[in-house]
Amino acid sequence: MSSLKLIRPRGPHAATKDPKQRGLMLLLLVANASMLAVYMGVGAVLLPTQIAAIDPANKVAVLGVVGGVSAVFATAFNPIAGALSDRTGRRNPWIIGGALASLAGLAFLGNVHTALLVGIGWCLVQATMNVYQAAVTAVVPDRIPAARRGTASALVGLALPIGGTVGVLIASQTADQLTMGYLVFGAIVAGAAVLLTTFCRDVPRPAPAPAVPRREQFAAFLSALSHHDFRWAFIGRALMVLGYFSVVGYQLYILDDHIALPAGMNPAAAMAVLTPVSMAAMAVSTVVGGMLSDRLDRRKVFVGVSAALAGLVMAVPVISPTWTGMLVFSALNGLAFGCFMAVDTALVTLVLPRAEDAARDMGVLNIANAGPQIVAPFVASAIVTGLGGYTALFLVGGALSLVGALAILPIRSVR
Asked: Is residue 140 part of a domain?
């Protein structure tokens, strides 16, 4: 066994016994669902629609640049905000501040009409949403006992199917009214932040340590990666996310340029059908996978098998580039990704090196979420334009997910 320490509950808040903490799980579900509604609704529908209207001839390349550059901001701001919230000992100010700043960024994004300004606006939204995300993500290791992490992560994991479905449905209805659509998403995340910070108070945390030199701060910031199990969890998550977003980020264009849709159905309407299919499957696998992983006290097998399935199903639209093929792909991909994210989140919280640095280290792990999204748009754009289109994109995405499944095997301290 590794010498890594499991995160243990600290005080009554960790077990949600305080009256003000009883609604914690539901509030976390709402907070995470609102965040994912923004990422899915804006990132998958409104932003590609806006870019296609501005520059239809170069939409693939422009979306790649905008997506890649904005992901740099996501990658930087998430761990920095997590470390700062650890330093201050509080989460709520970062949650509410990030959400309100995101509302302002989305309002700006809905009122610009050039590719440059769209890129600037989406960078602002990514930065501020990742301030919000870093603080919300740290609530689970802060307040949930280790024995309940799988169930807690499964419930919180429902945020992806719920938030993703709601986000895409709202976006598909407001794709012709971009200003209104962006404002709706800003109001959703701001409202969720107000609810969470009003009804769930901060957990008292130890006083911050004395200031240390910046070089030592940077070394400490990335120190979690020196721990064997955390490092492999990081690699597995990064590969899985890279494979997933290389394809999903271009789904609107895939439906427009690669898939034979039924007569009378446009890509936005197709997204409004495919997303609920994927998210319903994701909801089932999230709950079942998370609860079974708790009951069996096994994490790695669920994470590895679901990552492998996510890689294999990428072949479906290659074999059958039809509406039926996309429906099958969406359902199977939802099953795989939902189980992976639910159980992998539980696994990660169990390999964090120190409870005192939970938000900082979860922020470092979130580089594995945001970092691949820097690479994915550039890689996807290059593959689509230089290697024969979307067939090659599906094959590369599948290969990345399969390698991500293998990266789970070396983890030692979690079964």
From this structure: yes
